[in-house]
Amino acid sequence: MVGPGWARTGSNMERLYLFDTTLRDGQQTQGVQFSTAEKQRIARALDDLGVDYIEGGWPGANPTDSDFFAAAPQTRATMTAFGMTKRVGRSAANDDVLAAVLDAGTPAVCLVGKSHEFHVVTALGVTLEENREAIAESFAHVTAKGREALFDAEHFFDGYKSNPSYAVSCLRAALEAGARWLVLCDTNGGTLPAEVHRIVTEVIAQGIPGDRLGIHCHDDTGHAVANSLAAVDAGVRQIQGTLNGLGERCGNANLTTIIPTLLLKEPYRSRYQTGVSPEGLRGLLRDSRMLDDILNRVPARQAPYVGASAFAHKAGLHASAILKNPTTYEHVDPALVGNERVIPMSNQAGQSNLRTRLAQAGIEVPPGDPRLGRILDLVKEREDQGYAYDGAQASFELLARRELGALPAFFEVLRYRVTVERRKSASQGIVTISEAVVVVKIGDQVMMSVSDSASDTKDDNGPVNALSKALAKDLGPYQAVIDDMNLVDFKVRITGDGTDAVTRVIIDSEDGQGRRWSTVGVSANIVDASFEALLDAITWKLVRDAR
Amino acid sequence: MVGPGWARTGSNMERLYLFDTTLRDGQQTQGVQFSTAEKQRIARALDDLGVDYIEGGWPGANPTDSDFFAAAPQTRATMTAFGMTKRVGRSAANDDVLAAVLDAGTPAVCLVGKSHEFHVVTALGVTLEENREAIAESFAHVTAKGREALFDAEHFFDGYKSNPSYAVSCLRAALEAGARWLVLCDTNGGTLPAEVHRIVTEVIAQGIPGDRLGIHCHDDTGHAVANSLAAVDAGVRQIQGTLNGLGERCGNANLTTIIPTLLLKEPYRSRYQTGVSPEGLRGLLRDSRMLDDILNRVPARQAPYVGASAFAHKAGLHASAILKNPTTYEHVDPALVGNERVIPMSNQAGQSNLRTRLAQAGIEVPPGDPRLGRILDLVKEREDQGYAYDGAQASFELLARRELGALPAFFEVLRYRVTVERRKSASQGIVTISEAVVVVKIGDQVMMSVSDSASDTKDDNGPVNALSKALAKDLGPYQAVIDDMNLVDFKVRITGDGTDAVTRVIIDSEDGQGRRWSTVGVSANIVDASFEALLDAITWKLVRDAR
Fold first, then answer.
1. Where are its TM segments located (chains A, B) (predicted)?
2. What Å distances lie between residue A173 and A125, A132, A133, A178, CA to CA?
3. Is residue B299 one of the residues assigned to a domain?
4. ipTM of this predicted complex?
């Protein structure tokens, strides 16, 4: 186990540049379609992480990408627009697709172009010379506009294997036209590490400088990370990749894996510097989870470095050795990437971890307090039932408060009923109406409230919202406290299987003070699960603000 | 794109052996606990696939593993029991842990032992010489019983870096005592490919024959596959791994990735033979899905070779080139691993992708047909409303069929009502009851059905399931077709924001023929959205199977 590379910053270290394409190639992932707001949020996180380039999308290709560049966030990282080299048969200045890319006004522009003769002939249907001229003219045009230019040499490795001199001549055409970076793309993801190393070595031997070369890999054989590092070993100085390995087909090289390896593992940590700081690295797990959250994906438990299981020691022999010395079964310290060790809940390490979490919620419990063990048992038992407290800190806090006797009984729900009905309306349109009745006891008072909403209004007319509205009507004395609450997100997952299948609902709420908190409910019935999460959300707000 | 390696079977090819440890190291995955029946099912699938060794577990360590060996399936593969070298301070014959392993009666026995001085001293607390003697005696004992013996040299790479001569002397002790295989384990998963290659090369140079060496890697830096192949490049002839990369922490080397690379990719396909036949390889996707099914995991969409997205071409430029020639964006033929090409719909797709996608669904539309443009417009319009068709191919197909006039009117839903009620039951417990009423018209017949379920039964008692059950009751003439349908996953996402927020529900269904399909529904009301996805799921099944 070693400390991070920045501790050795020295004059002998070479600079490696990280180019993130989560917002462009990452958006080619099946099922992924970012909104403009999501792209902005991801761009800000990437900037905080410390990547050097953020490829934001293809301006002009679709409204979302155009909107993103129209209001791109200010970043330290170089904002980059993606496009393609000009088409044959018109000048660079008259290519409207290229013009739209330049119109985004980014400091850097990355253009993909062909470098594989088979693709020039088969896909483009032009001559080899016409393609090379299109590359040269495109980069001359981009650099004349004062932009930093990058050439994504599509299918470079396959092209090199088929016709090495043509592939290299395409690189040279871009280089001589002023491109800052020539990015060798393993577009189909079929190249293996030894081959990447050999071809990069040969390219550099032919006079293309390594510090002008980048690498862009795909994971079709599970080698995107290994190929990227093999290219660095052979001399390239820019790595392209995405958070969580999003991307076309099997995904791009996973920067969430590559970054900690570069910063923490030899020979990279002594040899190279990047723009990622220790603080950026500690935020890596949070960044990875943020992306999954935006995509409503279950985070990959076994992901290197940032997976929930990445430092989980299940084997009994491993767990007992870990307690003697963590280096026995850990190759790096999990805290460096914002992760933590997971060992059986019942032991001492589990309890100190729990005390830290409670302290974060303002609850101090002395070490060795037997209630700590009971809380851990309860968490384990409920996680077996399908609860997930990692993503629902507010519900975890309420569970602990309940066990510690530190949770006031604000109100009791005696019963509820929610009805969703879809039918033809008087005007023969189809209308759906949700109605909720909630009966609540506050002190000695029993209060009954009803709320409804219909699909012909603009409001959320679902059953959970109807319940939430009916509940909000009932809480007379606490009304002022919950008035500024909003339900902002709602995630549902089926867990377990067969007859044990249950629904887990996670609700994100926020209030007028800008606080955001998450609560969880589990039930075989999605409405019950939602109601439980809703009750926790209100109760947490009351704990924080009542009286 | 190349044909498989078996086509070149020749006398120059060397044999590589595949050792599967899904049932042993795979069971160290957080959250994984196989039953005996599941282990038997997996063992049979591994045998059909063509691995050489199946490590079934640790006899004596837990009841499941003992039960598995007591009734282990007959396999062509060599069934292997796992255990550890004898403890210091007793003879091999008197070690009860080792005796339990031998008592399983398997033809092969794999014993893990220490080869890293730090672990000998820190974890075992014995001398280096005592540990080496324990290795020698253990293997002499196992081979004297007529068993094939394998030595898992734990922490070999870390041990070699710390004390190379001691690490190699442990290998030699096992070799001289008759072990058939010496398996170099990167137990903590922190070694990188170049280091694996160098150390294996040095070990062989010290006189340990490569055809007696195996490799066992973990994925903590995302290099388990690359490390395994680097070891093969350097001379080892056995690879240990698991299906889908199950295993402790980040998992073991993924055989689901390694096997196709060995059989389909150069230099491996010309250089090595394995026990996997073309038919075994074509069953790989099915084997991978079977394991996910047993674990109730959502299959990893982006897994190399076997992921649902592994041959999905989302970018418009890629999709149009693929139509001209699949090798433009595919490094191998998906059919060789039992997978298939996917050209998903999204706002980046053009008419040619659309025609291909329709053709896959059995719908032929001539190029230039104006209805193609209308379908694309409709897809775009609905994606703006929150629909996501590239994760819901079945709904896309229905949308297209509707527009093309190729969708029979199976039935019409006139109205529905679903009620969820939570109240105290007679026995003072809290009970939640869901009730659904659905009124459907089939031909001239109007049918009304009701279904309910309560939280005090073991069934899914949510509103969507109640609706699904009521709907299924109504479809009299189509009953036989939908009887084998199951709702297997249910994903909910809030999209848009503020007053434009809508709920998107994606439902995955499967049937008795092993088909799995996804449908989407969007509404401000989650019940309406679910109902829409549910209707699509049933309609798609009727399109495929009715009449």
1. none
2. 20, 7, 8, 9
3. no
4. 0.78
B114, amino acid identity:
K
| B382 and B417 part of one domain | no
Residue B5 has pLDDT above 70, yes or no: no
Closest-CA distance of chain A to residue B108, Å: 23
Q: Residue B250 and residue A123: Cβ atoms within 8 Å?
A: no
Does A123 share its domain with A268? yes
Q: Specify the pLDDT at position B347.
A: 47
Q: Do B336 and B217 fall within a single domain?
A: no
Going along A360-429, which residue ranges are E strands?
A: 412-424
CATH of the domain at B50: 3.20.20.70
Other beta carbons less than 10 A from residue B315's beta carbon: 21
Residues B100 and B224 in one domain: yes
Angle between helices B224-234 and B193-205 (to 10 degrees): 30
Quote the pLDDT of residue A456.
64
Give tens-digit pLDDT for B443-459: 888 988 898 877 766 56
Task: Mutate one of A525, A531, A532, A534 to test the B interface: name it (highest B CB count within 10 A).
Answer: A525
Q: Do B257 and A222 touch (CB under 8 A)?
A: yes
Specify the range with the lowest mean pLDDT, choosing from A24-28, B17-21, B121-125, B534-538: B121-125
* Assigned domain for B9 exists: no
- Domain of A464 in residue numbering reads as 412-545
Which of B379, B404, B429 is at the close of a domain? B404
Report the CATH number that the domain containing residue A424 is assigned in CATH: 3.30.160.270
**Alpha-carbon gap, residue A63 to B140, rounded angstroms:** 71
Residues of B in contact with A329 (CB under 8 A): 187-188
pLDDT in tens, A493-531: 776 555 566 888 888 888 888 888 989 999 888 889 999
Q: Is any Cβ of chain A less than 8 angstroms from the Cβ of B194? A: yes
Into how many domains does chain A fold?
A: 2
Residue B34 CB neighbours (<10 A): 22
Instruction: Give the CA angle between residues A241, A110, A68 to the nearest 5°.
Output: 80
Q: How far is B134 from chain A (nearest CA, A)?
A: 18
Quickly state the pLDDT bin for A322 (edges 50, 70, 90): confident
Position B8 confidence tier, pLDDT thresholds 50, 70, 90: very low
Both B28 and B169 in one domain: the answer is: yes
Is A423 an 8 Å CB contact of chain B? yes
Give the minimum alpha-carbon distance from B219 to chain A in angstroms, rounded to a whole number: 7
**Does B309 fall in a domain?**
no
Residue A524 placed within a domain: yes
Give yes or no for B326 touching A (CB within 8 A).
no
Domain end: A258, A276, A294, which one? A276
**Gap between the Cα atoms of B268 and B5, Å rounded:** 8
Same-domain check for residues B387 and B478: no
Which pLDDT belongs to residue B98? 97
Q: What is d(CA A224, CA A215) in angstroms, rounded to the nearest whole number?
A: 10
Of all residues in chain A, the one with the smallest CA distance to B254 is A222
Looking at the structure, do residues B395 and B416 belong to the same domain, yes or no? no
Please choose, from the candidates A235, A255, A254, A258, the residue with its C-alpha nearest in 3D space to the C-alpha of residue A14: A235
Both B355 and B460 in one domain: the answer is no
**For the whole model, what pTM was predicted?**
0.77
- Which pLDDT does position A316 carry in this prediction? 62
- Asked if B211 and B242 touch (Cβ cutoff 8 Å), the reply is no
Of the candidates A472, A222, A383, A39, the one whose C-alpha atom is nearest the C-alpha of residue B230 is A222
**Separation between Cα atoms, residue B374 and residue B379, nearest integer Å:** 9
Q: DSSP string of A201-237?
A: HHHHHTT--GGGEEEEEB-TTS-HHHHHHHHHHHT--
Q: Report how far residue B525's alpha carbon sits from residue B504's, in angstroms, rounded to the nearest whole number.
A: 9
- pLDDT higher than 60, residue A143: yes
DSSP state of A87: P
